Amino acid sequence: MKEKILIIDDEADICSSLCFLLEDKYDVKSTVNPALGLAMIQRETFHLVLLDLKIGTVDGINVLGEIKKIDASIQVIIMTAFGSIVSSVDAIKKGAYTYLTKPLNLVELEEAVEEALNFRKSRETVEYGGVLDERFVYQGIIGQSPSMKKIFELIDKLKDVDTSVVITGESGTGKELVAKAIHEAGRRRQGNFVEINCAAIPESLLEEELFGHKKGTFTGAMADKIGKFEYANNGTIFLDEIGDMPVSLQAKLLRVLQQREYTPLGGHQKVRLNIRVIAATHQDLKKMVEDGRFRQDLYFRLNVVEINLPSLRDRRQDLPLLFAHFLMQYNKEMRKQVKGFSKEAEACLLGYDYPGNVRELSNIIECAVLLAREDVIEVENLPVEVRANKTDLTDTLDLALGARLGTESLVGLTLQDAERKLISAALVLNKGHRKATAAMLGISERGLRNKINDYGLNE
Fold first, then answer.
1. Which among 200, 295, 226, 298 is positioned nearest to 256, based on CA atoms?
2. Of 70, 94, 128, which residue is a domain's last?
3. Which of 80, 190, 230, 375 is a good FRET partner for 403, with 20 to 30 A between their CA atoms?
4. Is-contact 217 260, C-beta < 8 A?
5. How many CB atoms lie within 10 A of CB 448?
6. Could you give the CA distance from residue 72 to residue 59 in angstroms, rounded to a whole number?
7. Backbone angles phi, psi at 87, to 5 degrees
């Protein structure tokens, strides 16, 4: 069933053009009368409204407020060729998803529509505690951002072949989940998935853990011990934190991978292997090879395909889905019925950078559910460092303007000059980080990039 979009603009030609542009993908209606538009919203369910900022003598900001009173879940994109950038910012403060300037860039418009509708779905899941849409879950991995969709596509290509894979990314990004997904989705799922953390086992014991030993090999070896490689035979072995493996053991691992066989410590009988190897690290293996801390031949043997997992701060579009997932998980574990987050708490969570990535987010939600006294998580239920990073859009945009412009007035500036100043201010506030700047301004990254180029802000 198509999602429903309503266009409210006093120019009939614009309504017709936008209907033509969007009608193949969405169920689109339009009106030049804002009062009629509000009546339509009261009678029908709309997911998105494209709203002109100035509709004849009617102020679109007031119409926005009425839309949100009828149904707060409706996403609104403001279209403006009037007023100033301040009016557009005010619209975002009052609940608009983003704003676009006329004449409209149709590619940017289509991107904004898709992003707004995806954001609505994510918020709906968080607010109403529904089951996560299966389109956003792949073998237990949650995501709807373009970067995660590419990861899912790559896993799908790799699952039924035995190509060696190295998974890279910051700590807490879910490298083990990806390794398990490759195993569980593929033809080796009937075999064992065996994980060993190369950084967690002392060097003196790691070889024994990997390859096992025979009875009597050393004092205390009272029985044969099966190594991880043998236990993973016909399945998958996951060598986590491979960058921490001692160089002396790397040579033996290379031989095992080349010959597909090994001899347990103290043994004489070779163990033949039919196994898939997946490795992971948060370190830069190429740099380690250059520094002589990782064997180059082992690097090329392992790194046939590399999967680089994005940090959580680089896929903020997935945050609402992850909020919902962990909320449901910890409600079940703690037998609680927390339904969602206050607006202030959600603002804090959306603005935080998550240096510990998904693992840290999981811990934050677990703690918040535990501490919540009511059925909604409040700001005081969040860790101090999350509360300290509150990025309320109203305060942030005001701060951006104030920090950059000081007492300088925007009165008398053209829309383009005012927009240039705001984008420049937001870039300064975010230290040039474009993803964060786009999120703050409520526009797509591509839209921000185009505006940066148009206004010569690259310099």
1. 298
2. 128
3. 80
4. no
5. 22
6. 19
7. -65, -40
Q: Which two tokens stand for residue 45?
A: 């369910």
Q: What is the secondary structure of 285-351 as a DSSP string?
A: HHHHHHTTSS-HHHHHHH-SEEEEPPPGGG-GGGHHHHHHHHHHHHHHHHT----EE-HHHHHHHHH
> Is 98 strand, coil or helix?
strand
Percent of the chain with pLDDT over 90: 48
CATH number, domain containing residue 299 = 3.40.50.300
User: What's the rounded Cα separation, in Å, for the pair 283 and 281?
Assistant: 5
The number of domains in the chain is 4
Please return the burial class of 364, using the count of CB atoms within 10 Å of its CB with bins 0-12, 13-18 and 19+: buried
Q: Cα separation of 147 and 132, whole Å?
A: 19
Asked if 84 and 93 count as a contact pair (C-beta separation under 8 A), the reply is: no
Give the full edge-to-edge strand order of the sheet including 305-308. Answer: 193-197, 236-240, 276-281, 165-168, 305-308
Q: Within this chain, do residues 152 and 293 fall inside the same structural domain, yes or no?
A: yes
Out of 364, 387, 410, a domain closes at 387
Pair (450, 356) in one structural domain:
no
Model pLDDT, residue 272? 92
Residue 103: strand, helix, or coil? coil
Q: What is the DSSP secondary structure assignment for residue 79, as one 8-state letter?
A: E
The residue ranges of the chain whose pLDDT is under 50 are: 83, 128, 391-407
Q: What is the pLDDT of residues 389-429, one digit of tens each?
A: 554 444 444 444 444 444 455 556 677 777 787 888 777 76
For tokens 């968080």, the residue is 126
